[in-house]
């Protein structure tokens, strides 16, 4: 390799950072959310040797918390294991420019245009990759989780918001600026719909996200409820809960039907907190899609294998593989 090859602060070439690691290597992965930052050091089999979680501070201070968590996890390892850590990956919410290693914007956490890569590589002493959290979670479910073995897969992450990934012909679809599927911001209720924080009206997210399901139940009944999981749990005995879930499923199906027509995925994989509803969500969504489709087959609808850990598991896999391939 020539001496003019660009290098990371930890001394590994950028090209080298995109190669698979040997089986004896360990990796550090961080999944950054609006509430918590989760981290693990794992081996090739996915066994965690060090685990930690910290609250996510607001604004650029979140990056200091990431650095401290990673440093603490590395310090907990025996020296022999510490030397085996060969790469790290940090997956971030919002807009992420991976080419420039910049966290462009996160409305939930409150940062803008923060340069990332060098600070972690210098602090931790290992090459550090960054990526969009949903891109990594969806890729992990497709390549190593419920979508493994399929070339055409739509992964939908249902939580506080709704987004996901699309894989077509064995390739992960990315926009020109690196984003993946903003499924939550497909307008499905333009007439009489609720305003969405994105500035539109009647987006899928205003009806089918976890927060939206809980709010809809409270509006309908006047009773406060702890979250979407409780609404799903009440479906068999509470007609109001059943109606709220039916409305959410209809909105989600309306938002996905265009994607199904355009890309003909064989499989839709549901992840995120709302997917914890299991068959109470997958079965009616499959029926709703089947009712809307005439020219293309209805894809199977299944639960993701990584669940709420998709981002963290994906960060470790991304660090080990070096690219979302």
Automatic annotation (TrEMBL):
Gene3D superfamilies: 3.30.420.40. It comes from the Bacteria. InterPro entries: ATPase_NBD, ROK. Belongs to the ROK (NagC/XylR) family. This is ROK family protein.
């Amino acid at each position: 390799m020539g001496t003019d090859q660009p290098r990371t602060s930890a001394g590994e070439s950028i090209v080298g950072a995109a190669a698979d690691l040997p089986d004896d290597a360990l990796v550090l992965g961080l999944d950054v959310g609006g509430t918590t930052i989760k981290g693990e050091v794992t081996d090739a089999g996915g066994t965690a040797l060090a685990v930690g979680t910290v609250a996510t501070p607001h604004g650029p201070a979140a990056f200091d918390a990431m650095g401290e968590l990673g440093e603490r996890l590395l310090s907990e390892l025996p020296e022999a294991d510490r030397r085996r850590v060969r790469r790290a990956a940090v997956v971030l919410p919002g807009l992420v420019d991976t080419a420039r290693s910049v966290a462009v914007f996160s409305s939930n956490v409150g940062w803008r245009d923060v340069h990332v890569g060098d600070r972690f590589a210098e602090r931790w002493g290992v090459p550090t990759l960054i990526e969009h959290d949903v891109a990594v979670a969806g890729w992990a479910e497709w390549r190593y989780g419920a979508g493994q073995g399929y070339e055409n897969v739509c992964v939908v992450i249902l939580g506080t918001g709704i987004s996901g990934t699309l894989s077509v012909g064995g390739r992960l679809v990315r926009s020109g600026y690196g984003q993946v599927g903003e499924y939550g911001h497909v307008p499905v209720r333009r007439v009489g719909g609720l305003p969405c924080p994105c500035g539109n009206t009647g987006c899928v997210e205003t009806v089918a996200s976890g927060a939206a399901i809980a709010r809809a139940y409270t509006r309908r009944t006047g009773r406060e409820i702890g979250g979407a999981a409780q609404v799903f749990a009440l479906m068999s005995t509470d007609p109001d809960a059943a109606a709220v879930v039916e409305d959410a499923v209809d909105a989600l199906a309306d938002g996905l039907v265009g994607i199904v027509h355009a890309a003909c995925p064989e499989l839709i994989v549901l992840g995120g907190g709302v997917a914890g509803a299991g068959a109470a969500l997958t079965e009616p969504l499959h029926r709703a899609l089947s009712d809307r489709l005439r020219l293309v087959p209805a894809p199977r609808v299944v639960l993701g294998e990584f669940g709420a850990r998709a981002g963290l598991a994906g960060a470790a896999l991304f660090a080990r593989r070096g690219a979302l391939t």
